[in-house]
Amino acid sequence: MTVQSVMSRYFSISEKYIFLEYGGPDGELGASLRYLSQRYSVPYPEIKAVLTDIGTEELAHLEMIGTIVYQLTKNLTMDEIKKSGFDSYFVDHTTGVYPSSSSGVPYTAAFMQVKGDPITDLHEDLAAEQKARTTYDNILRFCDDPDVIDPIRFLRAREVVHYQRFGESLRILTDKLDSKNFYAFNPEFDKKK
After folding, report:
1. Phi and psi at residue 106, to the nearest 5°
2. What residues contact residue 130 under an 8 Å CB cut-off, 6+ apart?
3. CB 27, CB 136: distance < 8 Å
4. CB of 101 closer than 8 Å to CB of 16
5. 185: which DSSP letter?
6. CA distance 67 to 97
7. How high is the pLDDT of residue 110?
8. Can you give the pLDDT at residue 8?
């Protein structure tokens, strides 16, 4: 069995769900933009560095997901496109990799959050990494091709590492604040005098 025949066999399921991690609400595009935008309002350089590092890494993950989607779609026949339900996407984008969710909703900045409060933002980041991990877990439930499973497992493992790094960053932040009061003010905006 060729890689293309394997890809065609499960395209309608796998590609659709892999799109979630490209431009969906918990995907790599939103994660990279979220972290790279949040770093500006973080008062501590070590946390800013974590947001920069992970935000940049998420851009590389976006490229990996885009490559997988393209490889799954590039040689589909018109019959395969019709049978898989890919025809409405094909009309708009051919086999171009367009950031959208598995249901076809285009990426929107409403999928991400930046509050300008490092405590709030780090909690958002922790939740985002868990949602991405869960999405990868769900993709793996539908997938049976090692050429797709292996990179998805790698990306899932990176979500766990990111979660840990954001947890460490939250601890650094709260350790630097007055422990009796750290939920009572925004450490970036309400600076101690």
Report:
1. -60, 150
2. 159, 163
3. no
4. no
5. S
6. 9
7. 85
8. 45
What is the C-alpha to C-alpha distance for residues 171 and 74, in angstroms, rounded to an integer? 45
Give the residue among 56, 50, 67 at the shortest CA–CA distance from 32: 56
Give tens-digit pLDDT for 74-120.
888 888 888 877 777 788 888 888 888 777 788 888 888 899 999 99
pLDDT tens-place string over residues 134-177: 989 988 988 888 888 999 999 999 999 999 999 999 999 988 87
Measure the CA–CA gap between 163 and 69, rounded to whole angstroms: 25
User: How does DSSP assign 76-145, residue by residue?
Assistant: --HHHHHHHT-HHHHHHHTT----B-TTSPBP-GGGS---S-HHHHHHHHHHHHHHHHHHHHHHHHH---
Closest listed residue to residue 91, CA positions, set 78, 108, 109, 72: 78
Q: Where are the domains of the chain?
A: 3-175
Q: Tokens at residue 114, please?
A: 């930046």
Domain 3-175 class, CATH top level: mainly alpha
- How far apart (Å, rounded) are the C-alpha atoms in residues 154 and 65? 12
Report the alpha-carbon distance of residue 96 to residue 187 in Å, rounded.
43
How far is the C-alpha of 83 from the C-alpha of 81, rounded, in Å? Answer: 6
